[in-house]
Amino acid sequence: MINAKTQLCCIIGNPVEHSLSPQMHNAAFAQTKSDFCFMAFKIINLARAIESLKMFNCRCIVVTIPYKQEVIKYIDKVDETAKKIGAVNCIINNNGYLTGTNTDCYGALQSLEEQTKLKNKKVAILGAGGAARAIIYGLKLKKANVFLFNRTLSNAKKLAEEFNLTRPYSLNEQINLKNMDIIINATSVGMEPNQDQSPVAEENIHQDQLVFDIVYTPHKTQLLKIAKARGAKIVYGYKMVLYGGIKIFELTTNKQAPISIMDKTLLKNLN
Ligand code: ATR
Question: Which residue ranges does the chain devote to CATH 3.40.50.10860?
């Protein structure tokens, strides 16, 4: 039960109303009898929000759109992973000292590694935004061969140069996806309210592939429906939220995360 010693944790962003982090973390805190509570705050002034949360001794601040880059200038330390990715999505407060990390990368890698090894696999990333960056960084660490596909080629070229990738493809050249072992959608295509769209045409997916969609609303995206129908293995987007959340829980509490209750809570709130 919330009491006078309970420490605050939160997610900040704008919009933030769709977040499932409060349900997932509060269920985990209850299960492990950890004296924390988790709230969501829609904010418009990031500097003042961070200052206030520090004043209230908030233990963990999860950061979402559009503040993952900007928040870097308001914290004391950025760890190596977040530095390389260029974005912070989780801040841990140790007696007023704020350390930023990035758990998106860990979340994506764990989701994939549950199903397959990544070393030497040919992996297509669709998208060249923040989510794509985090995943590419992780895949390179795992020694996968990464190929970029994006609607706007100039955006993909910048990213490809930075991460030393081969020439990126336009999404119109997606016939090349047939040669890939793993396809990851890191664009927003297929997200509600455009749930009828898929970034990949049916004929470019086959049964020897693994398809991961980081879009998790809806739970069963059009891309994943097509992939399943074509006989491919699939990974649901909510897994990235789950594994990222597990890391956040562990950094916050220094306890092992209760994975099963976090998984069930997410699924219950998605369905
Ligand atoms: P995030 O931080 O979630 O990755 P982002 O940085 O805005 O979000 O990146 C969104 C990605 O989705 C981009 O790669 C974008 O492609 P462009 O570089 O061409 O803008 C991609 N995207 C968004 N809407 C799209 C659409 N309708 N069709 C194809 N790609 C789309």
Answer: 7-102+239-270
The protein residue with its alpha carbon nearest to ligand 1, atom 14, reads 127
* Cα separation, 92 vs 58, whole angstroms: 9
Strands 90-94 and 97-101: antiparallel
Q: What is the mean pLDDT of each run of 10 residues along the chain (271 residues)?
A: 96 96 98 98 98 98 96 97 96 98 97 98 96 96 98 96 96 96 97 96 98 96 98 98 98 98 97 81
Q: Write down the CATH superfamily of domain 105-236.
A: NAD(P)-binding Rossmann-like Domain (3.40.50.720)
Is the beta carbon of 168 within 6 A of some atom in ligand 1?
Answer: no
Distance between Cα 126 and ligand 1 center (Å): 9
The number of beta carbons lying within 10 Å of the beta carbon of residue 192 is 11
- DSSP 8-state secondary structure symbol assigned to residue 75: S
Domain 7-102+239-270 has CATH 3.30.470.10: no
Closest CA to 214 of 246, 244, 239: 239
The answer to whether 113 touches 141, Cβ cutoff 8 Å, is: no
Q: Ligand 1 centroid to 187 CA: how many Å?
A: 5
- Measuring CA to CA, which residue among 138, 123, 57 is closest to residue 93? 57
**Ligand 1 pocket check for 128: Cβ under 6 Å:** yes
pTM of structure: 0.95
